[in-house]
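hiii, so i know i said id send this last week but things got crazy w the move. better late than never?? heres the sequnce for the chain we talked about at the cafe, plus the structure i predicted for it. fair warning i was half asleep when i ran it
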Amino acid sequence: MSTKQILDKYVTYFENKGHKHIDNAPLVPLNDPSTLFTSSGMQPLIPYLLGEKHPLGERLVNAQNCFRSVDIDEVGDNRHTTFFRMLGNWSLGSYFKKEQLPWLFDFLIDPKEGLGLDPTRLYITVFEGYKEIPKDTESIAIWQSLFQNVGLSANEGERIFAYGVDKNWWSRSGTPEQMPVNEPGGPDTEVFFDFLDPTIHENSQFKNQKCHVNCDCGRYLEIGNSVFMQYRKSTNNTFVQLPKSNVDFGGGLERFLLATQDISDMFLTSLFSPIITSIEKSTNKKYEGNERPMRIIADHLRSACYIAAFGIVPSNSEQGYILRRLIRRSIDNFHTLSGTDLAPIITSIIEVNSKTDQILIEKSEQISLTIIEEANRYRNALKNAKLIIDKELAKQTRSGDEILGEHRTISAELAFKSLASYGISPSQLKSLGYDFNEQELAEKIKEHQAISRKGNEKKFKGGLADTSEKTIHGHTATHLLHQALRDVLDNSVHQSGSNITSERIRFDFSYDKKITDQQLLEVENIVNGKIKEDLPVHFEIIPTKQAYEIGAIGLFMDTYGDKSKIYFIGPKKGTKAKPYSIEFCGGPHVNFTGELKSFKIIKQESLGLKQRRIYAVVE
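okay and structure toks below
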């Protein structure tokens, strides 16, 4: 069974259960500066899981493209990838455990309508309870009944296992202790597939530990997780029941593929094996014995293809930084295998994945150019780094410092400087002929990452991390600012980026000349005028074609699906005037512009390439 067949079966199965198929949200979120990438199937649905009504109803299903940068360092084993497709079904108060678990089990084992997995290979984890939140005995009873129906005993401790909040509890903030007041969350139950191969554990780094369903050795693979969002944290640090309980299921398409093909190594499945073959040909080396570097190359270049398809280019910040890191890390591993030509690998990735994502074919030239150009820049960066290091070593020689060994020894400080300035990895430094104290360098990198992570943690984690009142005000203000700029300048102005915090708005847009002080004042006055009018703000999900026809504007306008979420600002109720602003956006926003109070532009600056930036604050 191929990924396309699994995807189609899953969507059809839940459509037959009354679910509406919703579009795959863009991998690069639109108008949501709180996160760099869509990292889960539920991320675009957070407003609805928190209570907002979805226009398509209470039962939804889709396949969502996801990217998690936090998994970069995990890649290299038999199952982790940074890019993946998450199959999901949701109940927004329509059904709960007694419907979800039988449907899931049926889909997993039914050979005709589902995956046809052997139920003897399936194992379950459930929530063991926490303080006043009871153990999930309801899910245990349902699972036991389901297994008994197929002639299997499912006693707790032999096929069903209970775990605590670190394994079987879900909230946006993590465990119950980490959740802020009013944050929703709930227990989850996970399904694992057993590859029945004890050598996986015996050959892993965990061989001296007891193997169990949550063991990281890879013998047991989590293939699906049903989250039962039924609690809200109250002010006295206790939990109360939500008025409506939701179901949020996520199952990795790639992991379903592993189970159906009964292959414990993700990179030997039909999805990755053609890519691995192209790497073998490009390096003239076999996969066996070179698994880790080839897995990294395959995964990172695959993720890079998807990100580049959205017009992201390698840079030193945000999505561009992640793209640069993926490409350069794949090149590092490619070089260790003496590889020289990335082009055939990129072609193979596009061909294999275009069966589910046509955008890769449509953007193939752009994707190839982006990756190859970055590879050339990296080659030049290596040369420049070598020049800088040799220049510094020459200074040390003149000052009488000792240069030791056949390989020239450099300080951890200089090694870190080359990494920070040119993106040169420790392995690349060694290939250039330099030695350094690896522990000292690792400590410097760790220190730098801790500082960076403190400011960017929420963005890299994903999921509408900041939904404070001030930030929501900033979202609405950018829509007013966008339209006001078009009113004062001209309709060629289009947003190219934004960053919204509780302190200020940063808005990037296309324009080829400096804006006069008078023009900035006009823009500011228009925005404040719309705030005083207290215009209503609402959204509708409409066909994308219709959205274009009525003049909707927004980021990445060629990446929406058949339907899009459109926010309207104005007109006042009871009037026949046109809306002031019509824009593609995922939200969130205020209900009326009067909630913003006032708007002030702080400064403007040029970004080059006919791009400008405005900083502003909202009171």
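btw The chain has three domains: 3-268, 273-436, 469-618. thought thatd interest u
miss u guys!!
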